[in-house]
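#struct-pred
JK: can someone run the complex with pyridoxal-5'-phosphate? inputs below
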Amino acid sequence: MKLFNVYPINAINIVKGVGSNVFDDKGTEYLDLYGGHAVISIGHTHPHYVTRLEDQLHKIGFYSNSIEIPLQQQLAEKLGKVSGKQDYQLFLVNSGAEAIENALKLASFHNGRKKVVAFTGAFHGRTSLAVSVTDNPKIVAPINETDNVIRVPFNDEAALEQAFLQNEDISAVVIEGIQGVGGIQVASECMLQKIRSLCDKYDAVFIADGVQCGYGRTGKFYSQDFAGVNADIYTMAKGMGNGFPIGAISIAPKFQASFGMLGTTFGGNHLACAAALAVLEVIEQDNLMQNAAEVGGYLINELKKFKEVKEVRGRGLMIGIDMPAEFAHAKKDLLFKHHIFTGEAKPNVIRLLPALNLTKAHADQFLEAFTQVLKPATVLS
Ligand SMILES: Cc1ncc(COP(=O)(O)O)c(C=O)c1O
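RT: done, structure tokens with the ligand placed:
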């Protein structure tokens, strides 16, 4: 049997990880500023994480949602505390797309409507509803096509207001606090406040997609928190399990649950909860949100000094370096010449999504390599 070949990959076999470093099968060490796509939040093989998962595995790995799983309640309490939304309710799933799917469904159950406002440049996942609110026709299969999505230009408050005036049946507005796949584009605080006020006015549901920009990455738990307003539903996944597949939605108190309304086989299993608890414990004990703000702030300031760079965007440890076309080679050079993993976004943005305990020394290592990468190539005679 062959693999279904959908991923363009680098010919590197990573076999080990420690903190912000990974190692290939030949023993080469890499600095991981990609975090396996914003997933590694507390560093590879963090000792507390490994021990907690190991201990749990020796007890029980999985049982279904038909019995009491006290770890779920412990996770809800810890998440409520660390995220500062103690009165919200938790529903556990397995991935980011599943979180979005359930958020949109819950909104529609809540107000009985079908239309969703989503933004240009948005990425919300690949399952049915998630891909329909994503702004990329190439990954929308005919079966996913729908008239229920109203596409509004990102950060355009007037266009959002118009959308509400022209459509009486808007169920929800979904927005990433910082667009990831869209190239690290920060939602303006005014825009997020406008969404809050329009959702209040028209009884629509404000869904904050925190799958990539959430979980402390920006220095606040949800990046939408910078606007000082609460969303009705927050989605999360990537950093939540530090690599163990888990996602969730955090749901405002006004939503009423009923038996059978939402459900999943694997969501909230013992092992996933142990992983998520370990992550939150480390985030809390090691002040990782503060570290993300400090080291990220340092990186952003230093990167802004490079005159070759078109623009540096982002917050905390979610950083986009917008490069001119002549530096299209930069990401590959960082990886193959300097052994540094970074992410990318089209057309030419380098994305930094490292673990939240990245050190200033790691940041300096990257800045040194970045300086080298930007130097004009020496012509050998
Ligand atoms: C903002 C955002 N939402 C949702 C998703 C989908 O998450 P998953 O790949 O876990 O389904 C992603 C994935 O990249 C994302 O960046």
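RT: quick notes.
The chain has a mean pLDDT of 97.
The two ends are 50 Å apart (CA to CA).
JK: thanks, will look after standup
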